[in-house]
Amino acid sequence: MADVDSHSGQSRLTLEIWHPDCWTLEVTDETPAGLLAHTVFNTSGEQVKGHFTAYGDTTADVDELVAAAERSALTSAVSEMQRRHDFRGRTPGNTSRELFVEYDPENSVSDALVSNDFIQAAPVRVFDGREYWSLFVDDDREGVRKRLDAVRDETNADITVTKITRPDAGVGDAAWRADELSARQREVFELARKRDYYDWPRGISARDLADELDISKTTLLEHLRKAESKLLNPDSSTLS
């Protein structure tokens, strides 16, 4: 967990969140695809409608997620929308679909975060049954702790602070380029970093890393090549 003591005053937090009865966590845990949560609109009654981008390595992965969302007991309606925005020209994964999903706002942490004066700074990333929020907050370290504890109490959420920066740090192109990685590319690249593959001397060979992932060395190097290209080249294609 990031050290909340290291900052006071205005901060930007990245939070990893799990909470019960959430359809986005349910469907991304069940399927290999992910979601970007953009905007929520009020509807009649007690429901809200959210705009989401469903993304994945393949069309089949995205179709599987959409089907899971449609049959979920936690959603009321799922409809596809025509793409109108490119979100800075980049979309995660290799393929995506824009969705409107109607659901009960009580099964979201959004209201609890807003009521505790957290301000959303970027679309929420959801994959592997976890939500990743980028938020601004204007408080000292003890105030941030209290606000997070209040959200935990209100929603029964498991919240981990993974990063704290000054608010003028911005989202940055690197963060958006990381969102371009497919789920498999992200998995391979993150494991390579964790196993010190990029250190000198290397902490693990490409062959051993491939064996750990149960893939061939050629496939490993191809995943890493594509991930590195997307992370290092802002003009790289998002279709590979």
UniProtKB/TrEMBL annotation:
InterPro entries documented for this protein: HTH_bacterioopsin, WH-like_DNA-bd_sf
Alphabetically ordered keywords of this record: Transcription, Transcription regulation
Keyword Transcription: yes
Family annotation (Pfam families): HTH_10 (PF04967)
Protein name, UniProt field: HTH DNA binding domain-containing protein
Species name: Halopelagius inordinatus
Domain HTH bat-type: 181-232
Residues annotated as signal peptide: none
